[in-house]
Design goal:
This protein is an alpha/beta fold. It has three domains: about 100 residues, Response regulator (Rossmann fold); about 70 residues; about 150 residues, 2-Layer Sandwich (Heat Shock Protein 90). The radius of gyration is 32 Å and the shape is elongated. Helix 3 links the parallel strand 3 and strand 4. The structure holds adenosine-5'-triphosphate and magnesium ion.
Length: about 375
């Protein structure tokens, strides 16, 4: 329930109205004059303020003005004396939400509060909708821009890469020149792969689906990374489920998903550790799914980082592009599949892929 700030110089009113409000579930804070009321407002930021108009020192009109200046969205209900119509009108012109007259009746108070609550709810809804739309717009804009940039960069890269490779392979090259050409060729290759990731993310590259055995694909990926894993002192434990039917997927892209996940795990285990890979065929689910869990005993991910790991270009690494998991999720989405991540700082991380693609041979 909402917090209410009640400002009135008369103690009996603070008591009776306070009691009524508390019995209706409000958290009530009270102030005996305008000055103190403003201080409490700044400290506690209550969404609703109930203030008397006629008070010694700073009166209710000034309280209203100041609060509306600091926080226009706050609902301020003023309490006027009987027959103070001018003050009531003045306060409404200053954007008070409502006024009630003294003696404060329960009925009038509850109607005013209900209206204030409704307006607050509408404002919250509008704010949430606005934020949602703004984010969606931004996502679309980023998608379109990166798409265009990627296309623009790809052409010159192809040219640079082609000449660098020709230079590197030229027989008459001096050793240092060959080295430089090699570096250029490697860096270009890195940029090309980044560009491909971006285009893949924006859905530009079509899938080439063929039948595939998931266990076999993962074994091949592990073999490919075997040298790096051993070098880093990382042991691998696998548990492959039997009887998983063949699935129709893009082999290269799905392979890339597992490579991205395992390389992340390797980065998290700088001082060695264990990489666990487990596949499971979940037949009870509709549709039937294949669950792949890849876990590491690395440093783990703190909560505020975990929220962002799928964001495009989010990376905590100096040399990371921050597209690994974004691309993985995109590839999986296009295979009607999902990816999730759980982590505990100091213990490790588990990435779970749930494949529910088309099965080539009907299970
Ligand atoms: N297994 C993991 N353990 C700890 N942190 C992880 C793990 N996997 C991902 N992260 C965190 O998530 C971030 C985003 O991962 P992602 O793969 O998208 O990008 P990256 O690895 O930083 O760069 P890239 O993969 O593009 O080279 C990483 O920078 C890292 O902070
Ligand atoms: Mg990565």
């Amino acid at each position: 329930m909402s917090k209410i700030l009640l400002i009135d110089d008369e103690e009996p009113i603070r008591k009776i109205v306070g009691l009524y409000l508390r019995s209706h579930g409000y958290e009530v804070i009270t102030a005996e004059d305008g000055q103190r009321g403003i201080e409490l407002f700044q400290r506690e930021s209550p969404p609703i303020v109930l203030t008397d108009i006629k008070m010694p020192g700073m009166d209710g009109i000034e309280v209203l003005e100041r609060i509306k200046q600091m926080s226009p969205a706050t609902e301020v209900i003023v309490i006027t004396g009987h027959g103070d119509m001018d003050l009531a009108i003045q306060s409404l012109q200053l954007n008070a939400s409502d006024f009630i007259t003294k003696p404060v009746g329960n009925e009038a108070l509850s109607v005013a509060l209900r209206r204030a609550e409704e307006r607050l709810a509408t404002k919250r809804l509008l704010k949430a909708t606005h934020e949602y739309l703004r984010k969606a717009e931004k996502r679309i804009a980023i998608g379109e821009i990166s798409d265009k940039i990627a296309h623009e960069i790809r052409t010159p890269l192809t040219v640079i890469g082609g000449f660098a490779r020709r230079l590197r392979n030229k027989a008459s090259m001096r050793l240092s020149e060959e080295k430089y050409a090699g570096i250029i060729a490697n860096e270009v290759a890195r940029l090309e792969s980044l560009i491909n990731d971006i285009l893949l993310y924006s859905g530009e590259i079509p899938l080439e689906k063929k039948e595939l055995n998931v266990n076999k694909l993962i074994s091949e990926v592990l073999l490919l990374l075997d040298k790096d894993l051993t070098q880093k002192g990382i042991s691998v434990s696998t548990s492959f489920a039997e009887g998983i039917p063949l699935i129709c997927v893009d082999r290269r892209k799905l392979g890339e998903v597992f490579i991205n996940i395992i390389i992340n795990a390797m980065h998290a285990m700088e001082k060695g550790g264990n990489l666990g890979v487990q596949t499971e065929y979940v037949q009870e689910k509709v549709p039937k799914t294949i669950k792949i869990a890849i876990s590491d005993t690395g440093k783990g991910i703190p909560g505020d980082v975990l929220e962002k790991v799928f964001d495009p270009f989010f990376s905590t690494k100096t040399a990371g592009s921050g597209l690994g998991l974004t691309v993985a999720r995109e590839i999986l989405k296009r295979h009607n599949s999902t990816i999730g991540i759980r982590s505990e700082v100091g213990k490790g991380t588990t990435v779970t892929v749930e494949l529910s693609p088309e099965f080539c041979v009907l299970p």
